[in-house]
Design brief:
By secondary structure, the protein is of the alpha/beta class. The chain has helices at residues 13-24, 28-40, 56-67, 84-92, 105-116, 129-136, 153-164, 179-202, 218-229, 241-249, 257-263, 279-284, 303-309, 340-343, 350-370, 383-397, 406-413; strands spanning 47-51, 71-75, 96-98, 122-125, 147-150, 172-174, 210-214, 233-237, 253-254, 266-269, 290-293, 310-317, 320-325, 330-334, 378-379. It has two domains: 10-181 and 348-397, Adenosylhomocysteinase-like (Rossmann fold), CATH 3.40.50.1480; 186-343, Rossmann fold (3-Layer(aba) Sandwich), CATH 3.40.50. The structure holds adenine.
C-alpha cells in the first residue's frame, strides 16, 4: 500500500515516540479524555484534519482523537516548527502526517492540500490556514465540513473578519478565546517558551538587559513577567491605551517603539500585526541588538527593510543571522522573524498545552452532536467544556477547591440585597 504520510526521516520514530510519551505523562487532562474516548469512541469514523505545530504535545492530541475513533490527518502550521522525530513517530503510529521542518512555501501548501484531500468533516487550525485554503482554492470541500476550530488569537481575528464580511461558510469554534486556553497557554506558555527560544538561540544573559516587548496582550504580558523574573529591565510598546496603562501599573516602562529602539538589547514582537519593527527602528538600534518575533505570522519584523539596510548578512549560530548595517552596527535576527518559541525552542510546555488541547478534544466531540445547529459564524467554546477541562486539570495536579454553599449560590443569583 502506498505510504500515506511524508516526513523528513522515518528512522527518528523511536526517539519521537519517547518524547511523545514524556509529554503525555505531563498531560493529565488529555490522558483522562483519552481513556474515556477509548471506551466510548465518540469520534468513530469522523475525519479530522489538523494544521498545527507538529510537536510532542500535538502528537498527544492526535493520539487522543484517534483513540476516540477519529480518522486524523495532520500537517504543520509553520515552516520551522515541526519536530521531525515526532512527525516520524506519528507516521509509524498510522497517522497521515505531512510535515517536516524547513518546508518551503510550495511544500507547505502541498502538505495542507494532502490533508484536505482526506475530505475533512472537522478542521483544526493554528492560524486559520486550512480554513483559508478551503475558502479560496478548495471550495468543493465546504459542503462536507461540519465545523472548524481555531487555536490562535491571530486566527480568530482573521475568522471574525471573514464572518463579518459574510465570507465564512461553516461554523468555527474559537478555542483560543476560552479561558482554559488563553489564560494559560498564551500567558505562561508563550512567556516561558519565548524566553526558552531567545536563550537557546543566543545563550545570552537576560539579567540586566533592556528587554523590549511590542504588545501587552496575553502573550506579551506573559513574556514581560518571565523576562522581569530573570532580571531584565522590561520596556513595553503598545498601541492600545488601556493595555498601556495596565503595563504601566504592572511596573513596566511604557514608551513608543521609536524611543525603545534606541535603548533595547533584546526586542520581541507579540502583537499579531505587521510592520512593528521597520527601517527607522533598525537604524536607531544599538550594535548587538537581538530581534525576535513570537507572534503567529512572520510579518511583525519587516525583514525586507533589514535586508535593504544591511551591507552584509551571515548566519553566526543556528537560527541567528547577523545583519551588518551601513552604520557599522550588527543586529541579530532570530529564526528569520518566525515564531521564536517554536523555531528556536520546542514550543509551550506540555502542562499548558494539556488544557488547550483538552479543549480541542472535547470541542471535537461536542461538534459531532451539535454542529448541525450552528450557523456559519465564530462561536465561543461552551462554558461547560471549559469548566470540565479546568476540573480535570485540578484533579490531575491534585488541587482541591471550595464549593459554594446553597445560600451563597442564592445570594449571587439574587438582586434584592442592597446596603
Ligand atoms: N503552540 C505553542 N506551543 C505549542 C506546542 N508545544 N505544541 C503545539 N502548539 C504549540
Amino acid at each position: 500500500m502506498a505510504k500515506d504520510y511524508k516526513v523528513k526521516d522515518e528512522s527518528l520514530a523511536a526517539a519521537g515516540a519517547k518524547r511523545i510519551d514524556w509529554a503525555s505523562s505531563h498531560m493529565p487532562v488529555l490522558r483522562k479524555i483519552r481513556e474515556r474516548f477509548a471506551k466510548e469512541k465518540p469520534l468513530k469514523g469522523v475525519r479530522i484534519a489538523a494544521c498545527l505545530h507538529v510537536t510532542k504535545e500535538t502528537a498527544v492530541l492526535m493520539r487522543t482523537l484517534k483513540a476516540g475513533g477519529a480518522e486524523v490527518s495532520l500537517c504543520g502550521s509553520n515552516p520551522l516548527s515541526t519536530q521531525d522525530d515526532v512527525a516520524a513517530a506519528l507516521a509509524a503510529e498510522g497517522i497521515s502526517v505531512y510535515a517536516w521542518r524547513g518546508v518551503n512555501n510550495e511544500e507547505y501548501y502541498w502538505c495542507l492540500n494532502q490533508v484536505l484531500d482526506k475530505k475533512p468533516q472537522i478542521t483544526t487550525d493554528d492560524g486559520a490556514d486550512l480554513i483559508s485554503l478551503i475558502h479560496s482554492k478548495r471550495q468543493e470541500l465546504i459542503p462536507g465540513v461540519i465545523a472548524g476550530q481555531e487555536e490562535t488569537t491571530t486566527g480568530v481575528i482573521r475568522l471574525k473578519s471573514m464572518a463579518a464580511d459574510g465570507a465564512l461558510k461553516f461554523p468555527v469554534i474559537a478555542v483560543n478565546d476560552t479561558p482554559t486556553k488563553h489564560f494559560f497557554d498564551n500567558v505562561y506558555g508563550t512567556g516561558q517558551s519565548t524566553m526558552d527560544g531567545v536563550i537557546r538561540a543566543t545563550e545570552e544573559l537576560i539579567a540586566g538587559k533592556v528587554f523590549v516587548i511590542a504588545g501587552y496582550g496575553y502573550c506579551g504580558r506573559g513574556l514581560a513577567s518571565r523576562a522581569r523574573g530573570m532580571g531584565a529591565s522590561v520596556v513595553i510598546a503598545e498601541v492600545d491605551p488601556v493595555k498601556a496603562i495596565e503595563a504601566h501599573l504592572d511596573g513596566f516602562r511604557v514608551m513608543k517603539m521609536d524611543e525603545a529602539a534606541k535603548i533595547g538589547d533584546i526586542f520581541v514582537t507579540a502583537t499579531g500585526d505587521r510592520d512593528v519593527l521597520v527601517k527607522r527602528h533598525f537604524e536607531l538600534m544599538k550594535d548587538g541588538a537581538v530581534i525576535a518575533n513570537t507572534g503567529h505570522f512572520d510579518v511583525e519584523i519587516n525583514v525586507g527593510d533589514l535586508e535593504k539596510l544591511a551591507k552584509s548578512k551571515k548566519e553566526v549560530k543556528p537560527d541567528v543571522e547577523s545583519y551588518e548595517l551601513k552604520n557599522g552596527h550588527k543586529l541579530y535576527l532570530l529564526a528569520q522573524g518566525r515564531l521564536v518559541n517554536l523555531a528556536c525552542a520546542n514550543g509551550h510546555p506540555s502542562e499548558v498545552m494539556d488544557t488547550s488541547f483538552g479543549d480541542q478534544a472535547l470541542v471535537s466531540e461536542w461538534l459531532v452532536t451539535h454542529a448541525k445547529s450552528l450557523k456559519p459564524k465564530v462561536y465561543d467554546v461552551p462554558k461547560d467544556i471549559d469548566d470540565t477541562v479546568a476540573k480535570l486539570k485540578l484533579e490531575g495536579i491534585g488541587v482541591t477547591i471550595d464549593e459554594l454553599t446553597p445560600e451563597q449560590k442564592k445570594y449571587l443569583a439574587s438582586w434584592q440585597h442592597g446596603t
